[in-house]
Amino acid sequence: DAGVIQSPRHEVTEMGQEVTLRCKPISGHDYLFWYRQTMMRGLELLIYFNNNVPIDDSGMPEDRFSAKMPNASFSTLKIQPSEPRDSAVYFCASSLTGKGNTEAFFGQGTRLTVV
Amino acid sequence: AQSVAQPEDQVNVAEGNPLTVKCTYSVSGNPYLFWYVQYPNRGLQFLLKYITGDNLVKGSYGFEAEFNKSQTSFHLKKPSALVSDSALYFCAVRDSGRGYSTLTFGKGTMLLVSP
Fold first, then answer.
1. B107 pLDDT band (50/70/90 cuts)?
2. CB count in 10 Å sphere of residue A88
3. Angstrom distances, CA of residue A11 to CA of A89, A110, B49
4. 3-state SS class at A115
């Protein structure tokens, strides 16, 4: 398996524009997570899905952020409108149910810069 | 609530010397504990995990970690450091007693191995 695949790897956009980040989890994994990493706040969980259903989105910072998982092999994180403070590295991760004893596998991340 | 503390922002060690990266945790039930490593411009890579059983867990790249329930610690160790071990290390915990719960990550410890 190619692992968790994220696109794009880098995104530079102007403030106010819509940004869409994409993720393909590992085949067969039933949990998908979106994280944000910044120097100030470290690694933050934004939202996670189980069997394509959003379970907890309490980490989503504002209504400008939304995430979808239309099927088991694809998820998106959208920011509309984007702001400079959204600049960060966004990671997608996936894992298998296993009573919680299974590790999560991370993608390479998308580095977002909002100017 | 579950939490992880990595008390050191940075650990410096000379190549060939043993290294320790510290981690303490707090959960209401029994912990599932994980270590991840992040190289520059890469995603987090799984190193090792403690689920149950032997308190000394061996993982990738010669790393090991020791689970100490009385001290609520899960320190990462390696007998002989390599320059290529220089990276950001994250400890994470999941509470085994809450059905499925998400991973909670520490803020990370930068390991710098000098030649």
1. very high
2. 20
3. 10, 7, 33
4. coil
Which segments of chain B are extended strands (E)? Answer: 3-5, 10-14, 19-21, 24-26, 31-38, 44-50, 56-58, 64-68, 73-78, 87-95, 104-105, 109-114
Question: Are B76 and B65 a contacting pair, CB within 8 Å?
Answer: yes
Q: To which residue do tokens 């959960």 refer?
A: B27
For residues A68 and A76, is the Cβ–Cβ distance under 8 A? yes
Chain B contact for A107, CB < 8 A?
yes
Mean pLDDT of B12-16: 98
pLDDT for position A33: 95
Shortest distance, CA B18 to any CA of chain A (angstroms): 26
- Report residue B20's pLDDT band, with 50, 70 and 90 as the boundaries: very high
| Cross-chain CB nearest to A42 (options B36, B100, B108) | B108
Yes or no, beta carbons of B96 and A100 under 8 Å apart: yes
